[in-house]
Design goal:
Layout: E1 2-13, H1 15-28, E2 33-41, E3 46-55, H2 57-68, E4 73-79, E5 84-85
Antiparallel strand pairs: 1-3, 1-4, 1-5, 2-3
Amino acid sequence: MTKRVAVISAILENPALCQSEFNNTISEYKGIVKGRMGIPFEDEGMSVVSITVIATLNEINGLTGRLGTIEHVTVKTAISKKEMPCP
């Protein structure tokens, strides 16, 4: 099995309604998360979050899928083509 680098981008529309569930879901995957950047757009009532992970495709898809089921959250993922061996 191999790992890849991925960037998961998420737009939270009306963060007050979905931010708690979003953060709880990410914390469940803390072992694969290598970095996170969030930008609040308070005037627009939105937040944009970028999460960098190193994980297997199953783990990446698991996190992306879970985040995508949260109401008011839109998610897209970019996955590297380069594979890294799992330790």
